[in-house]
Amino acid sequence: MNAPDLMDLKLVVPEMMLTGAALVLILLARRIRKANVVAAGTVVAAVAAALAAAPIGWVFSGVAATGFSDMIIVDGYSQFFKVLIAAALALTVLLSVKRAPGVVDRATDPDAPGPSADGETGVVNTGPGNDTEDVRPAEYHALLLLASTGMMFAVSALDLLTLYLGLELMTLCSYILVGITVNSSASNEAAIKYFLLGSFASALLLYGISLTYGVTGATGFEAIASAVSGDGAGTDRMIWVAMGLLGAGLAFKVAAFPFHAWAPDAYQGATAPVAAFLAAASKAAGLAALGRVCLVAFEGQSGVLSMGLAGLAGLSIVVGSIMAVSQSDMKRLLAYSSIAHAGYALLGLVSGTPAGATATMTYAFLYVFMTLGAFGVVIALGERGEKLDGYHGLAAQRPGTAALMLLFLLSLTGIPPTAGFAAKFIVILSAVRSGHFALAVLAVLCSVVTAFVYLRVVVLMYMKEPREAAPSRFPVAVGTALALSALVTIIAGIFPDLLAPWAVAPGK
Amino acid sequence: MTEIPVLTAMTFLPLVGAVAILLFRSERTARWIALGMSLATLAVSLPLYRYFDKGSSDLQFVEHAVWLKDWNIAYQMGVDGISLPFIFLAAVLTVLCVSVSWTAVRTRVPEFYAALLLAETAMIGLFAAANLFLFFIFWELMVVPLFLLIGVWGGPARVHAAVKFLLFTLAGSVLMLVAMITLYSEFGTLDFKELVGQKMGIELQGWLFVAFLAAFAVKVPMFPVHTWLPDAHTEAPTAGSVILAGVLLKMGAYGFLRVSLPILPDAVQMFVTPMLVLSVVAIVYGAYVTLMQTDVKRLIAYSSVSHMGFVTLGIFTLNSRGVEGAILQMINHGIISAALFLCVGMIYERTHTREIKDYGGLAKVAPVYSTFLALFCLAAAGFPGLNSFVGEFLIIGGAFETNTWLGGMAVWGVALGTTYLVWLFYRMVMGDVNPGLEGLKLELGVREIATLAPLAFVAVYLGVYPDCVLSYLHETVDALLVAGGTAS
C-alpha cells in the first residue's frame, strides 16, 4: 500500500464540505439559537457540495479517477448520486424549517410535558401554539450533514470497507435522527426498532464482507471481480453465501422485502422530514451501493445475482403494494409505497447490464423528487397531514396543496406525463430487454394496486367534505421545496431523456 | 396544407384554457374561458376538413419535432381518414359539454371546467398522435380528468363508480404499457408507420395482441369487462357521461384500428373468431340487460354496450364494408349517445329523478323536449333516414359476408334495440302526465335547444348523406386492410 496522496483529497471535496459544515455546526451549537440560520447554512453547504460534485461528474463521465489506494472512485456514477444526495439533503432541510423537528405530536404522546423549561439550549421556536421543543437545530442539521457524507462515501466506494464505513455513518446518524424528538415515546420506540434491526443488518453486511475476503482474499471491488470471474469451482458456493449476506445487508438499506420491516415503524415514529430523508436519500444511496457491488464486484456471477435481485424486486413490489392498501397513517402508507418503489428501482439492476444500471439510476433520481414532494405535502399540512383522515376535503380548503399532492401521487402511480411514468417506462424497458417478461407484467399489475393506494388519498382530498379546519399556512421554505420537487416531477415527465447523458453506469 | 401546426394547436389550446381557468379561479370567467377555448379549438380544426386530401391514405397535417432524441421517439402528430372524424367529434362534444354544464354544475366550477378542458386535450391528442408513445401518454392522461369528473361532480355513488372506472382502465392500460415497451425493445421505434409490416413471430404477435386487447377491450368496453361502464356512465355528471359515451368508448375501438389491425395482422387472424363471438354476445346480452333497466341513465349506459358490440363486430369482419360501417357507427354512436345523455341530464336537472316510472306524459308538458328525444331514440334504434341506419346496415352487411349466423344475431340485436328504445320513449313521453311532474317547468330553454340542435342536425345530415364521413374513410380503410392482408 502506498502512503495516501494528499492530492487524493480533491476527490472527496463534496464530502469534506459537508463534514466541515457539520463540524462547524457542532462546535457552534451552543451559540446558534436561530434555526433558520442553521438551516440556511446547511442548504448552502449542500448546494456547494452539489456544485462541487457536478462538474467533476461531467468531466469524469467517461473516465474514472481512483484514490486512497483504490478505496474511493470518482466517476459519472458516483457524482450522479452525490448530486442527488446533496439535492435531497437541501430539500429535506427546507422541509424541516420551523415545523420540522420537535413538534411533539399530541395524539401519539398524551403525556408530553408542557412548555419546556430549558430555554437556554437554543431550541427551535415554532411560533405560538406549539408545545415542547426539544431538538437543537445545530445537532439536527449536523446529523443530516453527516448522514449525507456517509451516503456520498458509500456511492464512491470501490472497496467493501469504504462501502461499509459510508453506510454505517449514514445509518448511525439515521438512528439518532429517527429518535431525535426525545420526548416522544413513539419516536423513541421507532429509533430502538430501527437500531436493533439495523445493527442486525450491519452485522450481516460485515459477515458478507469477511466471507468475501475469505474466499477472494480481497475487499477491493476490482480484485473481487477478477477473483470471482475465475473458475474457482470449489469456492463458488461460498461466494454465493457471501453474496447473499452482502445483498441482505444492502437490501436493508434500500428497504426491500424481506428486509423492509423497519421502514414503516421508523417512518411513522420519526418526524416527517426525517422520514422523507430516509425514504429518499438513504434509499438512493443504498441503491447506488448495491448497483456498484453488483455491476463491478460480482459481475462474474451475474446469473445468480440476477435471480436474487429478481426475487427481491418482485417480492418488494408485491408486498409493498399490498401492505400499503390497508394503512391509515400517511407516513406508514408512504413507507410501504417506498418499499414497492425499491422493488421497481431494482428492476433495472436485474438485467445486470450497464443499461439496466442507468435505468435504476434514473428511477432513483426521479423517485427521490416525487417522494420528497409527497412527504413535503404531509409536512406542509402539519399534524393533519400525518393521518389519512386528515385529507378529507383538502381540495376544497387548500386547492393548491391538494393539486400538488395529486401531482406527486400521480407520479408515484406512474401516470404520464409525470416523472413517475418516465421512471417506470425505463425500468420496465430494462426488464423486458433482459427477457424478464413475467417480472415486468407482475410489476405493472402491482402498479394498479398502488394506484388504488394513492387513489384513496385523492378520493379523500377531492371527493369528501372537510372534517377539520383548514391547515395553517406553511413556511416559505416548505413551499420552495414543494415547488422544486413539482418542477422536477413535471419537467422530467415531459422530457424523460434529460437525465440520460448524466446517468452513467459504473464501469471497471 | 397550412403552415400552422393545426393539430398541436387543437391539442394544447384546451390545456391553456385549463391553466387560465385555474389561475383566475372565478366561476363566471371559468365558464366563459371554457366556452371560448372549446369554440376556438373547434374553429382551429376547420382547416382540417377543408384541406384534407381524401384521395390519400397517408397521414396528413403531419407535425414532427425532435423530442426524445436518445430514445428515437419524436413528437409526431398527424391525421388520416380514420382519426379525422373523431377529432371533429371530440371538439364538438366538448363545446356541448360546456354548454350543458352551464347551470348544472354549481360546485367547484373552475376545477370542473379545467378538468373538462384537460379531457379535451387528451382526446384530441390521442386521435392526432402518430406514434404509440404519444398515443399512450394521452390515453393515460384521459383517465385523470374523467376520474375527477365522475368522482367529484357525479351522483350519489360517484366515488365507487370513479374508483371502479379508474382501476378497470388502469389494469388494462398497464398491460398495454408492457406491450408497447416490448414493441419498442424489439424494433427500437414506436412510430405507427414504421411498426406496420415488421416481421414478428406469431407467438409474440399473439401475446402483444392479448396485452393490447386488455387495454382496448376495457375501454370499448367488450363483453366480460364492461361492468365499469354502467356505474361510471350513470354516476357521472352529464358532461362526464357525454365524454365517456361520446369519445372515451371510441378510444378502445380506435386502438384496434390503429394498433392491432395494422401492426399485428397475424394475431388478428388468429383471434378473429373469439372477437366476433364476444361482439355478438355484447350486442345481444347488452340489449337484453338494457331492456330490464328502470333507471334512464343506466338504460342508455347499457345500450352503449350493445351498440359498441356492433362496432367491434364491424371491425373484426375485416372487410371494407364492415370496417367503414364500424367507424361510421362510432361517430353515430358518439353523437346519439351523447345526445341521449344530454337529454337525460337536462330533464334530470329539473326533476332530480332518473327512475323511468317517475316520468310519463312528457309530450304534453314539454313538446320540444319530446321531439328531440323522439328523434334521438329513433336514430339510436337505426331508423332509416337517420344516421345509425347506415352504419348498422354496413356492419350487418359485412357480418353476413363473414358468417350468416353473425349477421342474424346482429339483426336480432337491432330488433331488441328498437324494443328498448321505443319502450323507453313510450314510458317517458306518452300517456298521462305523471302527477309527480306537476308544477315543474320541464320545457327546454334556448341554451339547451342550442345544445341539442347541432346534434339533431348532424344525426339527420349523416342519415341522409353518410358519404360526408365515408368519403374520408375509403382510402384509409383500404390501405389498412391491405396492410393487414399482405403481411399475413
The whole-number mean of residue pLDDT values of chain A reads 84
Measured on Cα atoms, how large is the radius of gyration of chain A? 22 Å
* Total E-strand runs of chain B: 2
In what range is the share of β-strand residues of chain A?
under 5%
Q: Secondary-structure element order of chain B, as H and E?
A: HHEEHHHHHHHHHHHHHHHHH
Q: Pairing-aware structural class of the strands and helices of chain A?
A: mainly alpha
Low-confidence stretches of chain B: none
Count of structural domains of chain B = 1
Largest interface, Cβ cutoff 8 Å: A-B, 33 and 35 residues
State the low-pLDDT regions of chain A, or none. 100-132
Major beta sheet of chain B, specifics? 2 strands, antiparallel
Assess the beta-strand content of chain B as a share of residues.
under 5%
* Tally of helical segments of chain B: 19
Q: How far apart are the first and last residues' alpha carbons of chain A, in Å?
A: 20 Å
Oligomer description: heterodimer
Structural class of chain B: mainly alpha
**Series of secondary-structure elements of chain A, N-terminal to C-terminal:** HHEEHHHHHHHHHHHHHHHHH
**How many beta-strand runs of chain A?**
2
